[in-house]
Specification:
The protein is mainly alpha-helical. It is built from 16 helices and 3 strands. Strands 2-1-3 form a 3-stranded antiparallel beta sheet, covered by helices on one side. Strand 1 and strand 2 (30-37) form a beta hairpin. Helix 3 (90-100) runs antiparallel to helix 4 (104-118), helix 12 (294-305) packs antiparallel against helix 13 (308-322) and helix 13 packs antiparallel against helix 14 (327-334).
Length: 410
């Protein structure tokens, strides 16, 4: 069954939509396709001029679908950069990406942006209308590309930046996911033991008529408390976690306190610190290479770092740089950057290749994060197994002590 896609030559406006059509060509073969038009009648008329007998026209649904993730924006940026470098016009590139998207919400977003651009709005201004999906860093880079006539090069640089940033976040998540998953499973197992297993042992021990060992009595007391107040335990635990994360999300003081704590956690703190530095240097390198002035670039760098400590330090660095201080001097005064980053920044400032040296620093710390994640993965497994073995093994031994004692008496 052949498939065809018709291209419209009629003028388009902001109300145009994507229509899916089906029909027969001059040879009687069934063909299908998609067409952007202002209505079903326009689709039918356009296809008739091409000699296609239309049998069905349906407007593509643009409601529903999953929420738009950072990965969707990164894929869109890469596709748009690739097509523009290949010489595909901007509006046609948007059409191709929108048709290829499997997420209706993403399709609607791209169609809205395309409509704005088609009516004369600049691409950066169209992006700024959707701040939930395109932050100031993204819009500033696109604006710099439009002003310099190098939009395709800037989109390619932006796609690389997003891909590397997502890779760093993915590595951090993979390092934290295993211990979190094991802790959750251990909590579930302990809950089952406390509620169902230990009470069964307690009934057996009552028939012994002998004094129970202290470890056994402690475990039985814990089980009774857990069985009687499990609803309060789960309620307090769930409610506490919910309010904790909500306050972390909404309170600036809480964010600052938690981000400071995260940077000081043994082992994981070093990993998080290196990941933040990698994002910070990568962001500043990307923006400075795009021609964005240093003071304006620093305005977006702090938020992109993902850590309130570095965001606060970046604000002070921006103030110092705007008053004439050198970037290296301002970074040194902040007290949060390692010596290597400061030295490479100083070399970049002196040689006029700041973007290149910051990019090298970002690559170094990205590799450091990768190596640390690999090391943590191999280190955490035996460590967690030992902890779970001691915890669950201790409960099992405590419950079997009376049986061993009874065997010794017999």
């Amino acid at each position: 069954m052949a498939t065809a896609t018709a291209a419209s030559s009629t003028s388009k406006n902001a109300k145009d939509a994507i229509y899916e059509w089906e029909g027969k060509d001059k040879n009687g073969k069934i063909v299908r396709g998609e067409l952007r038009a202002g209505g079903e009648s326009v689709v039918s008329a356009s296809l008739r001029r091409q000699g296609i007998l239309v049998t069905k026209v349906k407007k593509r649904r643009t409601s529903g679908g999953r929420s738009i993730k950072q990965k969707d924006i990164a894929i869109f940026t890469r596709q748009l950069a690739t097509m523009m470098k290949a010489g595909v016009p901007l509006l046609q590139s948007f059409d191709i990406v929108a048709r290829g998207s499997t997420n209706p919400r993403m399709t609607k977003l791209l169609n809205d942006i395309r409509s704005d651009v088609e009516t004369g709005t600049s691409l950066s201004s169209a992006f700024r209308k959707h701040p939930l999906h395109f932050d100031s860093l993204y819009c500033n880079l696109v604006e710099a590309g439009e002003a310099g006539g190098i939009l395709e090069a800037l989109l390619d640089r932006l796609a690389i930046y997003q891909e590397k940033t997502m890779a760093i976040k993915s590595k951090i998540k993979s390092a934290l996911m295993y211990p979190i998953a094991v802790i959750v499973v251990a909590f579930v197992v302990l809950t089952v033991i406390m509620i169902f297993v230990i009470p069964a042992f307690e009934d057996v021990f009552k028939s012994f008529g002998a004094d129970l060992p202290t470890p056994t009595l402690v475990v039985i007391a814990m089980s009774k408390f857990f069985t009687s107040y499990w609803w309060a335990i789960f309620g307090i635990l769930g409610g506490g976690l919910y309010f904790f994360f909500e306050s972390w999300k909404r309170s600036e003081k809480m964010q600052m306190a938690m981000d400071r704590i995260l940077l000081r956690i043994p082992v994981f703190g070093d990993l998080i610190n290196k990941a933040v530095i990698a994002r910070w240097t990568r962001t500043l390198s990307t923006m400075f290479a795009a021609g964005v002035p240093l003071v304006e670039a620093l305005d977006s760098v702090g938020g992109a770092s993902g850590n309130a400590v570095y965001a606060q330090a970046t604000e002070q660095i921006q103030k110092d740089v705007s008053t004439g201080s050198a970037l290296t001097t301002s970074m040194t005064a902040s007290g949060v950057f390692p010596t290597m980053v400061l030295q490479m920044t100083a070399i970049g400032e002196e040689s006029g290749s700041l973007d290149h040296m910051l990019g090298k620093a970002a690559e170094f710390y990205e590799n450091e994060v990768d190596e640390m994640v690999k090391g943590l993965s191999s280190l955490m497994e035996p460590f967690i197994i030992v902890i779970l073995g001691v915890l669950i093994g201790g409960i099992v031994v405590s419950m079997y002590l009376p049986i061993f004692k009874l065997g010794a008496v017999v």
